[in-house]
């Protein structure tokens, strides 16, 4: 009879639910740390990146990270407008390089 009471008391122990919550929070923290480490614009990374948000739209943004410098450019919202003239043609080669041919 006394063994049954001890087993029931262990099952109703409120500290067990707190331990389970701590385990859940540890998993969430580990996932967040992995997400921060895999972010291309990570402050601790020495790699160079160019990140384009909303390409081709009026609210396009370009982030360029070179070493420890971060440059941020925003589109004016006037796509295809302005007082410019066509200055030449650019071609992309199979190896990914670009060639500019002035007119």
Automatic annotation (TrEMBL):
Pfam families: DUF2149. It comes from Pseudomonas fluvialis. The chain crosses the membrane at residues 15-36. InterPro entries: DUF2149. Keywords: Membrane, Transmembrane, Transmembrane helix. It comes from the Bacteria. This is DUF2149 domain-containing protein. The keyword Transmembrane applies.
């Amino acid at each position: 009879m006394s063994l049954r009471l001890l087993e029931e008391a262990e099952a109703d122990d409120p500290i067990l639910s707190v331990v389970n919550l701590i385990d859940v929070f540890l998993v969430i923290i580990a996932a967040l740390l992995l997400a921060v480490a895999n972010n291309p614009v990570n402050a601790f990374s020495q790699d160079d990146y160019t990140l384009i948000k909303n390409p081709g739209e009026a609210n396009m943004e370009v982030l360029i990270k070179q070493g420890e410098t971060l440059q941020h450019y925003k589109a004016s919202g006037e796509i295809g407008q302005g007082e410019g003239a066509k200055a030449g043609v650019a071609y992309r080669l199979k190896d990914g390089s670009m060639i500019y041919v002035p007119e």
